[in-house]
Amino acid sequence: MLRKSTKSGKSILLLALVLVMSVVLAACGGSKNEGSPSPSASPSAASESPAASASESPAASEGIDVSKLEPYEIKLIWEGPTPKDIGVVEAKINEYLKPKINATVKLSTLDWGQYNDKLPLMIASREPMDVVFTAQWNGHANNVAKGGFLALNDPNGPAGNLLEQYGKDILATLDPAFLEGAKINGFNYGVPTNKELAAVGGVLYRVDIAEELGLTEQLNNVKTVADLEPILLAVKEKRPDITPLFLRDGENFNAHYLSQQDYMGDVDIDGIVRKDKPDTKVISRFEDPDYMAQLELTRKFFQAGLINKDAATTTLGVQDAMKKGNVFMVTSSLKPGKDDEFAIAIGMPGKLKQIEIGPRTVSTGETAGAMLGISSTSKDPARAMMLINLLHSDKYLNNLLNFGIEGEHYEKVSDNIIKPGPKFNDYNPGVAWELGNQFLNYIWDTEDPQKWEKYQEFNKTGQKSPALGFTFNVEPVKSQAAILVNLKKQYAPALETGSIDPSKAQEWYDKEKANGLDKVLAEKQKQLDEFLASKK
């Protein structure tokens, strides 16, 4: 039997979160490292730029003497599918960006099923890259410990304080809670997306299929994962051509957004506190009764034929799975309007609905849930930060990257409302939450026009984790942590999708114990205690 968690009555002062989600549209500013020109320290506000035609020459970013900057190509990598028109949009971005910071971009993607495995290999091989998507749920802390990302605000680091020099618009518009919560050992290794801060998990399902099968009322009454069972059984019986529930590694009932486990910086490294309880004792995931209960329930679903048989091995992302049209339900991190966002991303507007399961919470995992980091292999980190800064402040550039070219991939209904254009399916990344400042994003005509106002209300509702603001620095135990990460890759995909018996969890736990788990837990506890003491 696995040990049960213990609870302490220790009370702490929680990190206060005051979300200031104002959008300041400002141009890039700062000073160049290594003898480059020193742009003005105070950026000027800038309005949205119109779509530039080939004959137009957009003005340079205010405060930057482009003539003193050498040409540079910025390699930008995000997680998601590769749109057909990525090259077309890349050319349009470069036309606009070159007069701003004398740089072009090379857009590159890694599919959902490949990112967690391929990015560490790219880091290990020292592959040249500049701006890279990173998050606490895809190995951020471990990749930082391996030297994959630069500290962005270390004045004594190899790149200097890039945030202070080139990220002034980021600092002006991003709530300080994001940067504070995403720090590792006092420094930021990624710039968080300006988006929702609270989090809640649940499921997305096909409304049209639910109505066809008469399941709407049952779905409206779902409160727990167990409530889904009779619904999924009905789908299996009445629509045998449909997969009732699509799960995969990282997208299941023990995913970071559905479990109430705060891993304090990296979900791949065991050692948690519960987000929904005041206890600050760091325990293993296996000591959390809810984790084990979800393994049992998921196994029951799998054995009943409610889950795709290849759940443990599939590299298909949940978006691509749902897009195929033969899946009824997927798990998902939720927020206001997530069903509409997801439906648009897969070309099914109006056909999805969401159900929240569990409480809304706020943890460090949300502050570091989507970031753009700068690779330690970048040849020009300053130019990389200039680009990130523009994605947080330049409305035209942000929307060009996220939605493509006006008149082709989208058409405007009003200033901030858009609808699909004739080439919508050729460029629809569906990853606006990865790339900059979501509060600059246009809103699709099928979405709630009050979407951003509802985000702000949503952010006020989350229950705060007792470890909020703390991010584990893996450096003192990086060897042991690396083994734990590999063990998770070995066991979690099959266990957490119900593909093998939950009794295998004991074997996983025993191997962790034999390979330094206690040392990792002790180091997490030590660092957390020091963090909490510093807040008193």
How many strands in all? 16
Secondary-structure-based class equals alpha/beta
**Count the helices. How many?**
19
Report the biggest beta sheet as strand number plus sense, adding barrel if it closes.
5 strands, mixed
Shape, principal axes of CA atoms: globular
Helix content: 25-40%
| Strand adjacency order, main sheet | 2-1-3-12-4
Beta fraction of the residues?
5-15%
Integer-rounded radius of gyration: 23 Å
The overall pLDDT, averaged over residues, is: 86
Parts with pLDDT < 50 across at least 5 consecutive residues = 3-59
Q: Kindly, what is the distance between the CA atoms of the first and last residues, rounded to a whole number of angstroms? A: 38 Å
Write the layout of secondary structure elements.
Layout: E1 72-79, H1 86-101, E2 103-110, H2 115-124, E3 131-134, H3 140-145, H4 162-166, H5 168-173, H6 176-181, E4 191-192, E5 200-206, H7 207-212, H8 216-220, H9 229-238, E6 243-246, E7 261-262, E8 273-274, H10 289-303, H11 318-323, E9 327-334, H12 338-345, E10 352-356, E11 361-362, H13 364-367, E12 371-374, H14 381-391, H15 395-403, E13 410-412, E14 417-420, E15 443-444, H16 451-459, E16 463-464, H17 478-495, H18 504-514, H19 517-534
Parallel strand pairs: 1-2, 1-3, 6-9, 11-16, 14-15
Antiparallel strand pairs: 3-12, 4-12, 5-9, 5-10, 7-8, 13-14
